[in-house]
Amino acid sequence: MMQKNIIGLILSVGIFILGFILNGNVGLYFNISGMLIVFGGTLAATLLSFKIDQLRIVGKVLWTGYNRPIKKEPEIINILIDLSIRSRIEGILSLQQHENETTVLFMRRALGCLVDGYHAAQIRDILNTEMYFFRLRREDSERILRTIADFFPAFGIIGSVVGLITMLGGIGDTSVILKAIPIALTSTLYGLIFANFFFLPFAANLKERTNQELLLQKIIMEGVIAIDSEMNPIILKTKLEAFLTPSDRETKLVSYQKLRERFKIEQRELKEQQEQPQHMRTREEAHDLEEEEETGPAVDV
User: Fold this and answer.
1) Vertex 158, ends 179 and 43: CA angle to 5°?
2) Does the pTM of the predicted model rise above 0.90?
3) How far is CA 196 from CA 121, 147, 149, 204, 210, in A?
4) Do 46 and 151 meet the contact criterion of CB atoms below 8 Å apart?
5) Cα separation of 247 and 277, whole Å?
6) Which residues does the annotated region (Disordered) include (predicted)?
7) Residue ranges of the chain whose pLDDT lies below 70
């Protein structure tokens, strides 16, 4: 999936750049003054708004998001089913040797609670707290990215205003006006491109990854609590597959034939068909008797 995204990204960026090249002189879109105004102003506003440590965390989260793939839901479910079988055969304490093997930090923490003998309610409370603050941290990083995305167009407009002021100051001097026009136009261009081409997509990707990881954490929490209650692995598999889309589930749907056999649908329908004519005849005979009582027996003429 990551390779498909990269291929699509390269093609779309190529089409985007081609739109600039077909217009003529590519050098017209590069202006050092406009770029310095936009980038310098955005950087200054960012440093005034957020701490360096927060920006460093955002950078790490972005780097991880684009370089470290997330495990798929079926993989997590298979791991939990395997752990469930091991715990039933070898005991709960046998999971301790697998605690450090898993690459999912949340699962390691959940297994640690399980091995340490916490009750199911305590495990659920601890993991819910972990999920809550994980979501808060990710939302904070997403908020920073969206704020920076808002800074870029604003300073692009500032660059345009600077260019317009320079143009007004150079009325009567063609050379000054020609130098000021690129600043006024390219500044807005840089602000819009970097906001909508980079930072807003960064924030959207972070939100999407956060939702996927929260789903995995929910699956892990339910699976670990089920292992603690010694739930049958087959029942556990059916329960955890409820988190998946129908196309990702391995369990096949029950055939109509088995449904008929289980609930005896065919026999019930046959019995109803046999009883219905007799019931209808009884109602017709009762209706005829009522008419005879009112009008007397019918006489053929």
Assistant:
1) 110
2) no
3) 45, 12, 7, 11, 20
4) yes
5) 46
6) 268-301
7) 1-4, 23-24, 91-103, 170, 172-173, 176, 250-256, 258-260, 262-301
